[in-house]
Amino acid sequence: MIILQLIESIQLGGAENVAFNIAEHCNRMYTDKFRLVVCELYPQKNAYAFEKKQLLLSKNIQIICLHKGSKKTGLFLASINLFRYILKQKPDIIHSHTDLPDFVLANTLRLLSLFHIRKPRIIRTIHNTELWPTHPVIARFTEKMFVNDEIIAVSNAALVAYHHLRTNCSLSTSFHQCVVYNGCRIPPKGEHNFLIDREKINVAFCGKFELQKGIDILIERIRTINHRYENVFLFHMVGAGTYQKEVDELAKQSSNVLLYDAVPEIANQLHAFDFVIMPSRFEGLGLVSIEASFSKTPVIISRVPGLDETIPEDWPLQFHLDNSDELLAIFENIANHKYPIESLKEKAFGFVSKKFPIDSMIEKYAKIYADSENNQITETL
Up-side HSE of residue 295: CA atoms within 13 Å toward CB? Predict the structure, then answer.
């Protein structure tokens, strides 16, 4: 059974990593049943993408690219090339991850319909709680082509977001829907190149420098924290994105802010830090939070739907984005050693071990793939 994992590109992102994990583990655990292929709409031309691609190839994961040019032209030409791929390779399932792959797939489905060609089974994983927030017209144009396809949400909050999207588009929801939490393995303690200072408290931000991730809020808060607690914290900013200039400026102005390029397999290196911070405005789930807990590195997170499903209910390192005092109070407590850190590490580790095992995720996806009769998989929230 040929299963195409349709992603935007090989880049830093939770949705992409989920697709990579599914491909790697299903190909290894179900060799006689499935052959999963990673398909990107357009390529990223940076060191992270190159290194990640080599890593995937070393794991015998086939990678195809639908368009070698820019993102702008790729979103349209990729639809034609996906249409051609379907005609030639006849994949059994196309598994789409996030909005832009959905958009390209919807255009391809229009082409298949135009030429009266039977479409493959369609599976969509909903990775976020904000879906097409600034493009409602494109959202409806895309969603119209999906009727009773299989919907898998990475969290309860993501499934709610899917329902809101369909309602806003005046469309009915699919009969086939469920929640499959993203699974993670316990990361090995890999070597790292971070400049850790054991005389200070090392706090890491690992992800895209984007508005969704709250990087602008973190920049503002770091300036306040540094003013109050000089020489206490060392911030490690790992990633890239549209706020690169602002992060660069912060690093130039602050001797305790260190900047690093995006790192493939960052989960293996989270053990180096004392804390990981995620000030996201919205998240479908938040793999870094889960990976940090598996690494026994406490995570400081914003109180937003989806992300709050990654930690125990009474987790003390949570804050509201619109309340600066809450985050500052957390850093004050950390500076004054008021948290039972070892107890928090074990509590978070136990929580994610039960809720987010990688084998459970792979088994659930494999069961859905193998369901050739396309039976209903609805679960109640």
Answer: 25
pTM of the entire predicted model: 0.92
In the structure, what pLDDT confidence band is assigned to residue 380 with cuts at 50, 70 and 90?
very low
> Is pLDDT above 70 for 376?
no
Residue pair 264/52 in contact (Cβ under 8 Å)? The answer is yes
Distance CA 271, CA 268 (A): 7
Distance CA 183, CA 17 (A): 11
How far apart are the C-alpha atoms of 89 and 5, rounded to whole Å? 14
* Model pLDDT for residues 108-133, shown as the tens digit of each residue: 999 999 999 999 999 999 999 999 99
Whole-angstrom Cα distance, residue 265 to residue 221?
27
Residue 62: phi, psi to the nearest 5?
A: -75, 140
> Which domains can be identified in the chain, with CATH numbers?
2-183+358-370 (3.40.50.2000), 201-355 (3.40.50.2000)
Q: Could you tell me where the beta strands, DSSP code E, fall in the chain?
A: 2-7, 35-40, 62-65, 93-97, 121-126, 150-153, 177-179, 201-208, 233-240, 257-260, 275-278, 299-302, 318-319
Of 357, 377, 354, nearest to 124 by C-alpha is: 377
**Mean pLDDT calculated for residue range 286-313:** 96
Among 176, 19, 149, 205, smallest CA distance to 97 is for: 19
Cβ atoms of residues 53 and 264 within 8 Å: no
CA distance 319 to 327: 6
Q: Which of helix, strand or coil describes residue 42?
A: coil
